[in-house]
Design brief:
By secondary structure, this protein is mainly α. The protein has 22 helices and 5 strands. Among the domains are: about 80 residues, Serine Threonine Protein Phosphatase 5, Tetratricopeptide repeat, CATH 1.25.40; about 240 residues, P-loop containing nucleotide triphosphate hydrolases (Rossmann fold, 3-Layer(aba) Sandwich), CATH 3.40.50. Helix 2 packs antiparallel against helix 3 and helix 3 runs antiparallel to helix 4. It starts with a helix and ends in a 19-residue tail after the last helix.
Length: about 500
């Protein structure tokens, strides 16, 4: 490779690191067009890098083809390309059988390739194949005992019938291992907290979760920073102040055979996954999971939300068509598709601008249960409010302020779906919810998600739970630890919960 091409390749890589994807992809294409004969292994490496940029840009089919070209060109570590192809099938195409085939292909080339094993374990979790997930994580730990995330996931999947003593000792040993980084230690603390909580060792569990969040908070990258309460208040105020004007032309469903969206939003851990699974049990409904479309669109419309009244009609129509085309590609033949990204509550003005008749299912839950569940969940650090109990309370208060505004704007188009009511009377709540979509209820929809149906959430720990009542009122086990939060949210809670609920704290 000559010096000029080396410089061009270095420039393409620099553009990719900066996130300038269109420019970086164009630069790689220019390099490959001018690639000399006889250095195909280096060309294969450049193809792999280009395919990875295409994957990041959401260009699924193009990226799959480019990865195949890299493999055919003699890529030095082809198992990496198969891994990335698996990610495309999982994240972009929702073809989980194909994803499994790609990951297995990677392992046939290199049976010790831990990243493929790890993603295979994640996939088995998403599919509810928990025994296979445990086996994948156990295999990782046999190869590398310091792959701490696999240890944490393995601990999270430990059956209740298995005594926890050995696993608690193993987790505590990993926590003091000098090879464990801060991010590893946070995950281990979360796993320990879960292990103790489900075994009703509540005092110890809360201390583990406190350590988990403190450790995660200490390792937040500078570009993310810690939760800024004033900034959040300003954002909510701006969303309230921007006037809502439905401007996008919406085709009547009878004239458009593509799947139509139904939006589920609210706080994380408010029952959105359970609600989606209930609706997706119906054969006419597809479970889209937590789609990133509207947060990305809002970023394109920066400065959002102030820019929204000034976005050209043609741009809105283009966005609407892109969204509906995505749903049709992912869920052909469905009448409805669920977009259940919880924090879409921030974008309801944008959503209703594009889809004026859209139905919004707002999942709600007892405030203390909701906040505690977030504190106990290993969310991405970009959700910085989740790392401190009182920050969660502040975020919750601001969310309630915004939802009260949306209720005045959209009225009956926002349907509150109460998690606590549902788990205590699921048939009545479920039938009412499906009726909103013109669909018939069937008691079989109450069965827990069958193995093979995908459950994916924004959490690091992805679990599948049956409908059960224990999570409703969970905060009563942590009454003393939640005293400050209870006082802060007292005016937002039902009267029966303001005194602290039932149950005593186990310390």
């Amino acid at each position: 490779m000559n010096e000029l091409l080396e410089l061009l390749l270095a420039n393409a890589r620099a553009l990719g690191r900066q996130g300038r994807l269109p420019e970086a992809m164009a630069a790689y294409a220019d390099v490959l067009r001018n690639w000399p004969e006889g250095v195909q292994s280096t060309a294969a490496s450049a193809l792999f890098e280009l395919a990875t940029l295409q994957r990041r840009a959401g260009m699924a089919d193009v990226a799959l083809d480019t990865y195949s070209r890299a493999i055919a060109g003699g890529l030095s570590s082809p198992e990496e390309a198969y891994l990335h192809r698996g990610l495309i099938f999982t994240d972009l195409l929702r073809d989980h059988a194909a994803a499994e085939r790609e990951l297995q292909a990677a392992l046939r080339l290199n049976e010790r390739y831990v990243p493929a094993l790890h993603n295979l374990g994640n996939l088995y979790e998403d599919l509810g194949r928990l025994e296979e997930a445990r086996a994948a994580y156990a295999r990782i730990l046999a190869l590398d005992g310091t792959w701490f995330e696999a240890l944490g996931r393995f601990a999270m999947l430990l059956p209740l019938s298995v005594p926890e003593h050995d696993m608690v000792r193993r987790l505590r040993g990993a926590l003091v291992n000098p090879r464990a980084r801060e991010g590893d230690r946070a995950g281990l603390w979360f796993a320990l907290g879960h292990l103790l909580d489900v075994r009703q060792r509540y005092g110890e569990a809360f201390e583990a979760y406190r350590e988990a969040n403190a450790t995660s908070r200490a390792s937040v990258p500078p570009q993310i920073g810690t939760y800024d309460r004033q900034r959040q208040e300003d954002l909510i105020s701006s969303l309230i102040q921007v006037p809502f004007v439905p401007r996008a032309r919406e085709t009547h469903k009878a004239q458009d055979t593509r799947p139509q969206p139904v939006f589920i939003c609210g706080m994380f851990r408010s029952g959105s996954t359970l609600t989606e699974q209930l609706l997706a049990s119906h054969p006419e409904v597809g479970g889209g999971g937590e789609l990133a479309f509207f947060p990305r669109l809002a970023a394109e419309f920066a400065p959002f939300p102030d820019s929204l009244p000034h976005v050209p009609e043609a741009r809105l129509e283009s966005a609407r068509e892109a969204y509906l085309s995505m749903l049709a590609r992912l869920f052909p033949g469905k009448a409805w598709v669920i977009d259940k990204r919880p924090d879409n509550f921030l974008y309801l003005g944008l959503i209703k601008t594009l889809f004026p008749r859209a139905k919004i299912i707002h999942t709600v839950r007892a405030p203390l249960d909701n906040c505690l569940s977030i504190f106990f969940l290993h969310l991405d650090q970009s959700m910085s409010y989740a790392l401190d109990l009182m920050d969660i309370g502040h975020y919750y208060r601001q969310y309630r302020r915004l939802m009260a505004h949306w209720q005045t704007q959209f009225g009956a188009d926002i349907i509150d779906f109460d998690y606590d009511e549902f788990v205590h009377d699921p048939a009545e709540s479920g039938a009412r919810l499906l009726k909103l979509l013109g669909l018939q209820w069937d008691d079989r929809y109450l069965s827990r998600p069958a193995s093979g149906r995908v459950v994916r959430t924004a959490s690091v720990w992805q679990v599948r739970e049956p409908i059960y009542t224990q999570a409703s009122g969970r905060a009563s086990h942590y009454s003393a630890q939640l005293a400050q939060l209870r006082a802060y949210l007292a005016d937002l809670m039902p009267v029966t919960l303001r005194g602290g609920g039932s149950g005593a704290t186990n310390s």
